Automatic annotation (TrEMBL):
It comes from Drosophila simulans. The keyword Cell cycle does not apply. The lineage of its organism: Eukaryota, Metazoa, Ecdysozoa, Arthropoda, Hexapoda. Pathway: Protein modification; protein glycosylation. This is ditrans,polycis-polyprenyl diphosphate synthase [(2E,6E)-farnesyldiphosphate specific]. Its main location: endoplasmic reticulum. Belongs to the UPP synthase family. The gene is Dsim\GD23075.
Length: 278
């Protein structure tokens, strides 16, 4: 009797959790539909002017700006497409971010976005490094009034008019670290490895970072900020060595991501205090 009662209570609890999940998804989709409908009703010029105002207000509040932003997309996310990524790249360009990396865990045919289809590769590009916007031109900041206001190290919109974009694959994670460690172990008798072992730990750390960067095929600072598009916070094996000190923020799948959401994440990152300790 007790076993039957426990089984019944378990099924009721399962139904309640499923019902809550369904209502949550419906609420998020309805909210996204309403906001998107409002965006469609507005003209493109009006929408871009609104985005510039929101980003300008965001820049005025930031005490620090990430130089490298990484976007992590879960294997089951269906809301992040090429159009949304293009808008995120524009937002990042406006606030002065220099590098954006994309780590899309979806498969081709299930929403995977290849940045090579969005961007062009120049002769100076190496590996998976691309440029945004595809055609170099004046940034939106250059069209704003130049009153000498300093914003996070950039004066009068004088930062680079193009983003450095990087596509990260699953093979760039743990497998890459394993290859580097294997190479160091195989060369453990060499003068280089022996000298690293005799020095402080920081020397070996720098050597591993340099070897990983060469294998990645692009040069970029370690990401300071990560946005995870998923129901739960999970990095899905994203560059475990490079993301040691990354501040991750999760944007739930199904929820609308717009300029307000982007600005809110930047402001949260700006307010967070990272302790490097001794």
């Amino acid at each position: 009797m007790i076993e039957v009662l426990c089984l019944l209570l378990g099924r009721i609890l399962l139904l309640l959790v499923g019902g809550y999940e369904l209502m949550w998804r419906l609420r998020e989709r309805l909210n996204a539909l309403v906001v998107r409908s409002y965006d469609l009703w507005r003209s493109r010029a009006a929408r871009e002017a609104h985005e510039r105002r929101v980003l300008a207000d965001c820049r005025s509040q930031l005490t620090k700006t990430p130089q490298h932003l990484v976007l992590v997309i879960s294997p089951v996310d269906a809301g992040v497409d090429a159009v949304l990524l293009s808008r995120i790249f524009d937002f990042a360009l406006d606030v002065g971010i220099k590098h954006v990396s994309l780590y899309d865990r979806r498969t081709k045919g299930r929403g995977y976005v290849d940045m090579a289809d969005l961007c062009r590769s120049t002769s100076a590009d190496t590996g998976s490094c691309l440029k945004w916007p595809p055609v170099a031109g004046p940034s939106k900041l250059e069209n704003q009034p130049k009153n000498g206001q300093k914003t996070n190290g950039y004066v009068n919109g004088s930062h680079s008019p193009q983003l450095q974009l990087h596509q990260i694959s699953a093979s760039d994670g743990h497998a890459l670290i394993a290859d580097v460690c294997r190479e160091l172990y195989e060369g453990r008798e060499t003068d280089l490895v022996q000298s690293l072992l005799k020095q402080k730990r920081e020397a070996l750390t720098e050597q591993i970072s340099d070897m990983l960067s060469k294998r990645l095929g692009f040069e970029a600072p370690e990401p300071e900020l990560g946005i995870v598009f998923a129901r739960q916070t999970c990095t899905y094996g994203l560059l475990p060595w490079h993301a040691r000190f990354t501040e991750f923020h999760t944007h739930p799948s199904g929820r609308l991501f717009d300029v307000e959401a982007f600005a809110s994440i930047l402001c949260k990152y700006s307010r967070c205090e990272q302790r490097w300790g001794t």
